[in-house]
Write a sequence for this structure.
């Protein structure tokens, strides 16, 4: 575990992440370059048509109108109408094309990001956090969409208007152009300095968005407990703090980026005043004409708007670049749990843990959550796991499912080290009902099938064996009844039975039930265990439970305490030899267990606490 984490950290912070960031947009833009080229060409032609309008107007005022030749005036007027029509139609077409390209590129980015998130290991998800992943998939991809769309719409138009306007003014009056050009270095310095500050500020803002999403997500998921404990005011204050922090960061970023507009207006309007004063002197001296001054002022307005558009582009670029870096960070994460070399040992067991150790942290000074976990199960055997909260029961299941990799030791299925089994082959073996599993906003049929094509017989058997058939058939639409998100329109016991039905639907080779019957009454729990014994006798089953009654008929029972096995054996053996198991049994089942315990004590020899049947060192049973 430590090795995997350090490798991930080094990769994401080192060269591969920087490379991913630098090529992130390019990689997704490249397939759409031909469409973008067509759109940019259309935008270029429309912008050039826009640029010619003031020049034609100046020519008409200074050259055509004084001749008082009506057909010539109408002809040049027609040219202006034609240029206006070209400018409008071409710009509209180009804008529609840019919107379509930005939409398609963002859709691919969103798809790839979702696919990558689906493949992340649990350790990677724990590090990035789910709220941050949600924000990157929604808010950050939206910022990328705005960047791509804005750059296509203004990225070609604004520079052409700026440079073309300057060239046109040079053709009209080079001296006035020099007056105007004197202010451009000041505007460029402002744009550079502000944009340099903008990217870190928007990165910080998106981190605040992560926090906001987390608070909203926690509040919506825990809305019932919030209402039950009258903590609405507390949650409002918690949301207000997150909202205020996000507002503060956004205000700071907007203030910094907002400097550009007034600064541009200041410099350009000062330039405009200088141009008007200089132009008045030149007209008075007969060095230029009124039409040229009128066109010059029009071009100056065009240049002013182009410069403001460029500043807006830098704002979009700063925000989009920050979001792009955050998305690239996820896409650059290495495959954390990639298959290794096939390592097979013919040990005769279906599942075996060999000196397994694990910790969720990489701190070498902190002890492992699990230490020296050794056990082995043959095909069709059942293992029950009991222990206090936090002792590592569910963690054993997560290691078996390879949600995390062990820090030491090996886990084998059918003699193969699970790190050498391809995921598609590996996960077909399992049927799983986890402690905090989820039902989706879909029909019961789809929730049980979960993307698998179940026949009516398979669906009916799964519901019957999971003790869910009766309440499902009692519903108005039976298996086609629609469920609310997370199964909110079901009781706790009904939800658990549907989750178990999902796990049983395809006759799994290995069945994992992680505290999945805690909401069932004792009778339903007993009927469920009877169905598992009768119809899944060849399925190897691991049950994590809080109740002794849920595991007392298992072939093996493991008792955990602080990440170590302190008892392993059958129900009767543990009653005689494991104090913690006996204590749990007596507290839950009272006199019945107490009587049995007394009988066991009288007949049992003095023995140490039983240990698991498999020893990695011995390569077989411990006897």
């Amino acid at each position: 575990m430590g090795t995997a984490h350090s490798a991930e950290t080094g990769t994401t912070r080192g060269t591969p992440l920087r490379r991913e960031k630098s090529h992130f947009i390019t990689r997704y833009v490249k397939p759409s370059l031909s469409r973008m080229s067509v759109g940019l060409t259309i935008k270029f032609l429309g912008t050039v048509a826009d640029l010619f309008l003031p020049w034609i107007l100046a020519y008409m005022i200074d050259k055509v109108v004084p001749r008082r030749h009506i057909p010539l005036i109408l002809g040049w007027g027609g040219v202006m109408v034609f240029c206006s029509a070209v400018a409008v139609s071409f710009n509209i077409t180009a804008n529609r094309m840019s919107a379509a390209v930005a939409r398609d590129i963002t859709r691919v980015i969103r798809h790839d990001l979702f696919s990558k998130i689906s493949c992340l290991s649990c350790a990677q998800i724990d590090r990035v956090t789910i709220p941050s992943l949600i924000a990157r998939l929604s808010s950050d991809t939206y910022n990328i969409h705005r960047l791509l769309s804005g750059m296509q719409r203004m990225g070609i138009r604004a520079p052409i208007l700026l440079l073309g306007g300057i060239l046109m003014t040079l053709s009209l009056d080079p001296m006035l152009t020099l007056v105007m050009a004197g202010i451009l270095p000041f505007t460029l310095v402002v744009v550079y300095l502000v944009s340099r500050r903008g990217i870190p500020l928007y990165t910080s803002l998106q981190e605040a968005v992560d926090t906001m999403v987390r608070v909203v997500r926690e509040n919506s998921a825990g809305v019932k407990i919030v209402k039950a404990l009258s903590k609405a005011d507390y949650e409002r204050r918690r949301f207000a703090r997150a909202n205020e922090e996000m507002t503060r960061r956004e205000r700071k970023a907007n203030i910094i980026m907002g400097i550009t507009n007034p600064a541009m207006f200041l410099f350009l309007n000062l330039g405009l005043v200088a141009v008007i004063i200089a132009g008045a002197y030149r007209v008075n001296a007969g060095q230029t004409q009124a039409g040229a001054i009128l066109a010059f002022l029009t071009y100056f307005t065009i240049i002013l708007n182009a410069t403001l558009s460029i500043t807006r582009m830098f704002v979009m670029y700063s925000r989009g670049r920050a979001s792009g870096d955050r998305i690239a960070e996820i896409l650059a994460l290495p495959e954390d749990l990639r298959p290794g070399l096939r390592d097979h040992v013919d040990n005769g067991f279906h599942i075996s843990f060999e000196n397994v150790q694990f910790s969720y942290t990489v701190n070498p000074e902190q002890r492992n959550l699990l230490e020296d976990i050794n056990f082995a199960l043959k095909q069709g055997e059942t293992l029950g796991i009991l222990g206090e909260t936090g002792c590592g029961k569910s963690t054993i299941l997560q290691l078996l499912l390879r949600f995390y990799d062990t820090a030491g030791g090996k886990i084998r299925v059918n003699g193969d080290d699970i790190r050498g089994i391809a995921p598609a082959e590996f996960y077909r073996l399992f049927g799983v009902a986890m402690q905090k599993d989820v039902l989706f906003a879909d029909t019961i049929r789809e929730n049980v099938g979960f993307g698998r094509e179940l026949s009516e017989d398979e669906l009916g058997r799964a519901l019957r064996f999971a003790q869910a058939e009766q309440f499902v058939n009692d519903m108005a639409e039976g298996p086609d009844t629609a469920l609310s998100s997370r199964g909110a329109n079901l009781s706790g016991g009904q939800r658990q039975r549907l989750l178990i039905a999902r796990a049983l639907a395809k006759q799994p080779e290995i069945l994992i039930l992680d505290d999945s019957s805690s909401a069932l009454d004792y009778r339903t729990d007993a009927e469920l265990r009877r169905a598992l014994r009768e119809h899944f006798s060849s399925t190897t089953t691991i049950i994590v439970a809080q109740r002794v009654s849920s595991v007392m008929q298992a072939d093996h029972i493991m008792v955990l305490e602080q990440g170590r096995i302190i008892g392993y054996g059958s129900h009767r053996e543990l009653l005689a030899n494991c104090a913690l198991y006996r204590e749990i049994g007596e507290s839950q089942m009272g006199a019945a267990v107490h009587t049995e315990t007394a009988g066991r004590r009288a007949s049992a020899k003095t023995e140490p606490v039983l240990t698991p049947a498999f020893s990695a060192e011995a390569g077989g049973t411990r006897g």
